[in-house]
Write a structure and sequence with these properties.
Domain Homoserine dehydrogenase catalytic (chains A, B): 125-303
Radius of gyration of chain A: 23 Å
CATH architecture of the largest domain in chain A: 2-Layer Sandwich
Low-confidence stretches of chain A: none
CATH topology of the largest domain in chain A: Dihydrodipicolinate Reductase, domain 2
Helix content of chain A: 25-40%
Number of helices of chain A: 12
Oligomer: homodimer
Distance between the termini of chain A: 47 Å
Protein name (chains A, B): Homoserine dehydrogenase
EC number (chains A, B): 1.1.1.3
InterPro entries (chains A, B): Asp/hSer_DH_NAD-bd, HDH, HDH_cat, HDH_CS, NAD(P)-bd_dom_sf
Structural class of chain A: alpha/beta
Family (chains A, B): Belongs to the homoserine dehydrogenase family.
Chain lengths: 402, 402
């Protein structure tokens, strides 16, 4: 009989307890750590609920499932669990993207496992497929809708033609967005997840702090409408690729056209496209959050920690140098809030040969479509325009066909 | 060092050898079994090529990779390998769908593994995700584009508005279809794959011989055009579901509308949607065939057979009773080649309340759209019409929105 302790009894924690109790096998739920034990007096599991972390580190626990979230005290608890020779399963993306290499090494030294499938993609089995199934492949690129909250908001804005503010409010009311949604909205959550996937895929430590990260809080109804006119929709994408020894990574809103697999990924769904040198393009789609989808991922890690012999997986400590612009050319949509339309138009026609322009004198906006251009050049021109007196603000979105 | 013998040196076999040689680890290619050794005198691997099957069963081989295909002698070779305590990896769907339960039991008795990831979905990791990752879930349904050849032909017919015969010819010229393509075209290949997935998912032996299996050889340009008018495309789908203790399974051409995830799956790509009670809907998409995608799946099985401790996976011998009609209602497209249009029209309006009709007196065809109807009723009316003197032939296609 394998004995499991679950730290945290929130949405995912209670889902994991449910799956352990439902599945008839040799895995036993032995302890549940909570903050306030008085709240749980009437729980079905009350006889195994504790608020003493020491209960977790005893010899009777084989596997620790950390679902507290955040850096502290999760970091300390995981470290101590590993040092006490317990396998650790976590869904903590903040922690793994920050301290993954150190914690994996501690696990390795102690001959136990540290698995974190649920830290990326909720119910989608992306980490084990990247780490194990694709081990024979050189990974060329990863593209993904990695955050359910922002995808829910963007879907709402697109389907109901509602404002960002309204869509965010609905998401919060329905429990799809937290009271402080900034980590999701600003793209940091996606960036942490992309950093975990990229670190596994490219075998160098890919720090998300070095990415270009843009959120969705600047997306307006104008942008949604323009995306629709182009036959597409706006999605927040994490993109990384590996080419000639260089790693490019970014998180940003992108217009995906109707031929893209991402175009139909709506609401809380996540989708990740991995390209390997042998396997080609592989796509994984599923629910990116939620009690039982995430619990499915955690539970599979519990089983794997028992059944897998391998114990050699480590993050590379060597830090990857992150390129700020992709070497690929694509089309671009640029929205400019101007002060002086003539001067801006002059600059645009001077710098770009192949563009479509739409000037709205009521809103003082210019919408530009630039055909097949490099990100580096788009950024350079954008920065130049932003520094001039003639431009109030500027946003640029990639247009992706697949 | 783990020693591998590969039986068969065709497309996938040579891909597996390539991946073993490329990946720097403790897996060594020790023998390659071929039919005619004289053909391989100048091969890079010629010193390990043999035409003597006895070379495979010796103590120096740890893992046997069977890529000969077909039932005999693959069945005998696998049996003997397992009985000689060797792990066996195979891509052989014919064999697994027919003798899977027996071979898995022999593996179990000998405390070795029999893995067959590449038998379904080419480069898509569907079997290990169904078997391991989703072990905690009750699987409710499986829907999939499971055959690359037919998907290539249907894509060609759709994009280029060409006939079935022309599309098949192109597929054969490009190596996407075999000289005798009947197993693909008639849906038997998809049925075997669906039977393997369903046997794992529903934990009963799901024999494909009991499915309703329809191929794509009756699909005409008229059908493609009609599907497009309905905002969809035609795909050959394997569908199974488990509801209230009953298993429904079929392989048939289906009109998938533009909102379906399957609508964008083109050419040699396969896509499989699994619905679990906890995880919800999970979609896996990738190349369903080809040298290195399939070799990726085989290679991952080699690694898993070394790294996994579990050795308890068995097919259930208990045979599933297969329902012939789904309990779900959906829309239907029916094409009737008639002798007497009046009588057929009378029958149709008598049996269906909510239909759209299109009569073509030049081609003697009636195209019918029936709204939200059960398969059982569609089949009953179709059979009645087919038995009358007034109908020459009749085809019915499901219309699926997701």
């Amino acid at each position: 009989m394998i004995s499991v302790a679950v730290l945290g009894n929130g949405v995912v924690g209670s889902g994991v307890c449910e799956l352990i109790n439902k599945n008839d096998n040799n895995i036993k739920l032995s302890k549940i750590l909570v903050k306030n034990i008085d709240k749980h007096k009437n729980d079905k599991n009350h006889n195994i609920i504790t608020d003493k972390i020491e209960d977790i580190f005893g010899k009777d626990i084989d596997i620790v499932v950390e679902l507290i979230g955040g850096i502290h005290p999760a970091y300390e608890y995981i470290k101590k669990s590993l040092n006490n020779k317990k396998h650790v399963i976590t869904a903590n993306k903040d922690l793994i993207s920050k301290y993954g290499e150190e914690l994996l090494e501690i696990a390795y030294q102690n001959n136990v496992k540290l698995y974190f499938e649920a830290s990326v993609g909720g119910g989608i089995p992306i980490i084990k497929n990247l780490k194990n199934y694709l081990a024979s492949n050189e990974i060329k690129s990863i593209k993904g809708i990695l955050n359910g909250t922002t995808n829910f908001i963007l879907t709402k804005m697109d389907k109901e033609k509602t404002s960002y503010t309204n869509a965010l409010k609905t998401a919060q009311e329905l429990g799809f967005a937290e009271a402080d949604p900034s980590s999701d909205i600003k793209g940091y959550d996606s960036a942490r997840k992309l950093s975990i996937l990229s670190t596994i895929a490219y075998e160098k430590k890919v720090n998300w702090e070095n990415f270009k990260v843009e959120g969705i809080d600047d997306i307006t109804e104008t942008d949604i409408k323009k995306a629709n006119e182009l036959g597409g929709v706006i999605k927040l994408l994490g993109i990384s690729n590996f080419e000639k020894g260089k790693i490019y990574a970014s998180v940003r809103p992108v217009i995906v056209t109707k031929d893209s697999e991402f175009a139909k990924i709506n609401n809380e769904y996540n989708s990740i496209i991995v390209e390997g040198d042998s396997v080609g393009r592989l796509t994984f789609t599923g629910k990116g959050a939620g009690k039982l989808p995430t619990a499915t991922a955690v539970y599979s890690d519990i089983v794997d920690s028992i059944q897998n012999k391998e114990n050699s997986f480590l993050f590379n400590y060597e830090k990857a140098f992150i390129e700020n612009h992709s070497s690929e050319q694509c089309d671009w949509y640029i929205k400019i809030n101007y002060k002086n339309s003539h001067k801006v138009l002059n600059e645009l026609t001077e710098h770009f040969k192949n563009i479509d322009l739409e000037v709205n004198k009521k809103t003082n906006q210019i919408l530009v479509i630039v055909k097949s251009e490099h990100e580096e050049y788009i950024n350079a021109v954008s920065n130049k325009l932003l520094q001039s007196q003639d431009v109030k603000s500027l946003n640029s979105l990639m247009i992706l066909n697949n």
